Amino acid sequence: MRAQKGESVLARIVRIFEAFTPEDSSLTVSEISRRTGLHVATASRLVAELVSYGFLTRDADRRVRIGMRLWELATRASPSLSLRDAAMPFMEGVHDVVGHHVQLGVLNDDDVLFLERLTARGAVVNYTRIAGRLPLHASSSVLVLLAHGSRRPAPARPGGPLHRYTPNTPANPGTAAGRARRGPPVRGMCCEDSVPLRAMR
User: Fold this and answer.
1) CB 71 within 8 A of CB 37
2) Which of the listed residues 69, 125, 176, 190 has the most CB atoms within 10 Å of its CB?
3) Cα dihedral value 9, 108, 33, 4, nearest 10
4) Residue 161, Cβ density class (10 Å: 0-12 exposed, 13-18 middle, ≥19 buried)
5) For each of the chain's 201 residues, which pLDDT tens digit applies?
6) DSSP class of residue 67?
């Protein structure tokens, strides 16, 4: 990625935040520079300023992480927090009854964004994680969300085949859209095998 000429400081800061991933939660300034396309001096200056405000933090080895101040501000007025609080008693009830993982996801643009997850020891493998995303065509959650909601989007952008994460992932946009519109084949239940761990982001 290369920095855009005339790009605002805010846009550059956003790119710095987006450089971090669940797999790479700490980065050096040089790594941030490469991922954002910013000159290393620019990246270093912006990182230092973000550290001074607590939005980023430095480890003892000078690697950079997302800071607690950013989490604090994001959580303070987050609409997802009230949704999570409202859903938690029901999630805990389902968790106690079924003895498997229970997750809370919402439609966000062309993805399912997961807000909460309750795990169960010995349960089937579940690859979702809090603050992780899955594309609509590769998530069993979207079948439930669309079946019980008013929104009926096609679970993919038009044009070209969809990315196939496993042999069971629908690669045809029409097939994926049809599955989403029909919803889960059994009322209140949906089983899916279309996405592996690395698909989460």
Assistant:
1) no
2) 176
3) -50
4) exposed
5) 555 567 899 999 999 999 998 889 999 999 999 999 999 999 999 999 999 999 999 999 999 999 999 989 888 878 788 888 899 999 999 888 888 888 888 888 778 888 888 888 877 766 678 888 887 777 777 767 766 666 555 444 555 667 777 777 777 766 655 665 555 554 444 445 444 434 444
6) -
